[in-house]
Amino acid sequence: MKVWLDGKIVEGSEAKISVLDHGLLYGDGVFEGLRILNRRVFRLDDHLRRLAVSAKAIGLTLPLPLEEIGSIVLQTARAFDQDEAYIRLLITRGEGPLGVDPTTCHEPRIICIVDHLNMFPKKMERGIDMVTSSLRRPSPDVLDPHVKSLNYLNNVLAKQEARLRGVDDALLLNQSGTVAEASGANIFTVLQGVLSTPPSHDGALEGITRDSVLQCATELGIPAREATLSRYDLFKADEVFLTGTGARMVPVANLDGQPVGGQHCGPLTAQLSTALARYSQLNGIPF
Predict the structure, then answer these.
(1) What is the pTM of this model?
(2) Which of 37, 139, 140, 170 is an S-S bond match for 162, by CB 3.0 to 4.6 Å?
């Protein structure tokens, strides 16, 4: 693991921050998860733009211009020196006195971590098992799903529930009872050749990999749409899969003990996975 922190790149074991950092104390900050694929940082500019908007949405001033933050990402990737890896880029509110008031923090902190991550090892062929979480995704007026904030407790508890119930991941529904996403990934269905994924107003993050898959579908001539989905829509789908920077692309085999999507990697899922790999080759910045 390599970490850029306070102007230096260090080993993960050497990276330390103050206990008074509001990112630690209150989850006050934003982040992006990025992928290194074939020694290229996938869609770096798009991740940086989303980071900037998330920061603006919570009133957090970026400590450096986006171009310099991008340079930090590439420097850290270069120091890790691996063909494939995962990047976690964080901007915290910085240090301040105890108390929730963010205006007491005057120096936001950048942290860039590069390490390996494999969320669902060896699951591409068979698919993962999921349960519907007892938790609900907060409504947009409580916590806007567009903002990738450091406060991920809703996702953490959903994942914990899934693991305690002996499966790989959790399906999160929104306050209306329709599908939002998985604990850390977007969800897609395929029914009669049509690709569907929940819109952001249903609680889904507008994921970079999600967008990439939609672009691949367009290039392949596969009908694709954003649509409100229910659990029923997952059960009747021909194929179901997840997408995300961490997950990449993985089929779903079971939901709540019932088979979905044919319990294997379906033909359209496989076709899109191949297209995504090719797309990734063309949309990365070398380091």
Answers:
(1) 0.94
(2) 170
